[in-house]
Each structure stands twice: as C-alpha cells, then as structure tokens.
Write a structure and sequence with these properties.
Strand order of the largest sheet: 1-3-2
Distance between the termini: 43 Å
Strand content: 5-15%
Largest sheet: 3 strands, antiparallel
Mean pLDDT: 89
Order of helices and strands: HHEHHEEHH
Low-confidence stretches: none
Radius of gyration: 16 Å
Number of strands: 3
Number of helices: 6
Length: 108
C-alpha cells in the first residue's frame, strides 16, 4: 500500500470519528434510519436530556448527515431526518450492528 494511501485512510477515519464520535450520534442515526422524527419524539424515545439531544443534533446537522425541517405549526414543530449523506452511512451502521451482535455479549 502506498504511504500516501495510508495517510488518507487515517485522515478519513479521523474525520468520521469526529462526526460520529459523540455519545448519542449513532443512536440518533439509528432512530432516524426508520424515518423522520420530531425533537420531542427523539428525546422521549432515547431518554436523553434536551441539551445533549440538541448538541448532538446540531453537530450531525452541521456535518451534513441530518437535516432539520421547521414546520409552520403552532407551536412550531421541528423534524429531523437523514440526508443523502446520512443515508449513505447506513451500510456502515448495519455492519457495525452485525459486528456487535457477533462479538459483543449482552449484559445478562
């Protein structure tokens, strides 16, 4: 392998872990995999604090893997969904899930 390819690989993995390295990022991505969700819906489903959810969603949105849509309702409804970039990560997400099922023992 070319040393330049090695560095590109390291840089790429480093950037991916910066995007998805947060405690809640993968869990949020997993929830959005099934379709768009509202902020409160995600919070209740995940049992996450409002601040942690807001921070994670802002990070994922700023990295282009989720989109935020504001609905003109009263009160305002905000919905989050995966972007094309986020949906493209699904393959990686599913492989990680399969690896976990194979190699990680459930807490009994």
């Amino acid at each position: 392998m070319n040393p330049m390819d090695d560095q590109l690989c390291v840089d790429s993995i480093k950037k991916v872990t910066e995007i998805f390295g947060g405690k809640w990022s993968f869990i949020i991505m997993g929830e959005l995999h099934t379709g768009p969700k509202r902020f409160n819906e995600l919070g209740k489903k995940l049992g996450i604090s409002t601040k942690s959810l807001s921070d994670a969603l802002k990070s994922l949105e700023s990295n282009g893997v989720i989109s935020r849509t504001v609905m003109p309702t009263i009160p305002v409804t905000v919905e989050y969904s995966l972007t094309e970039k986020g949906r493209d990560f699904e393959r990686v997400f599913m492989e990680m899930r399969e690896w976990g099922k194979k190699w990680l023992k459930p807490n009994v």
